[in-house]
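Dear support,

We are seeing what looks like truncated structure output for some complexes. This example has two components. We would appreciate it if you could run it in full and send us the complete token output so we can diff it against ours.
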Amino acid sequence: NAGVTQTPKFQVLKTGQSMTLQCAQDMNHEYMSWYRQDPGMGLRLIHYSVGAGITDQGEVPNGYNVSRSTTEDFPLRLLSAAPSQTSVYFCASSPDRGQRTEAFFGQGTRLTVV
Amino acid sequence: GENVEQHPSTLSVQEGDSAVIKCTYSDSASNYFPWYKQELGKGPQLIIDIRSNVGEKKDQRIAVTLNKTAKHFSLHITETQPEDSAVYFCAAPPWSSGYALNFGKGTSLLVTP
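Here is the complete output from our reference environment:
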């Protein structure tokens, strides 16, 4: 059971480039989310989805797009990368059991924008 | 939205001592309070959680206490071991954003032999 898989693990982008961070889960979880982690800032929510076809913004959504066409996949798109988006990105999923429960995190994608 | 404050930001203890990390939250409707451990180069992993209908929960050397009136909850690690060294995050879910979690800024725990 792979859990939550993020690709790539590392990426370097030039300012202005676009890219997609991939996230896939094989646990049939309804809820998925993206966080960014910066030193001293903890984990901040970028976007989340409560099911296929439904997405919403989190605390820091600017510069990022998401879509949820399937239950398994929740890609995060950087439209025009900026140095301020240098960060470690984590995808997480959790089952919708009518109450909050454990979130399972991927291993992270370390992104550097130069 | 939910505001989660976590203290201290760093904590150094000797092996065998206890460690306590405290968090406060602002949304009185929050009813689920997890703690995550993040080891270097890995994603956070749930170590214990508590719901608002209980005041304390234990799992071997770790325990979490919750005071809903004061809106704070704490992680207690007893008989610390070097492998407990990691970054610990508390979290609380703002009711308005589905299953999202607002995280504290983390506590870097170092257990020295």
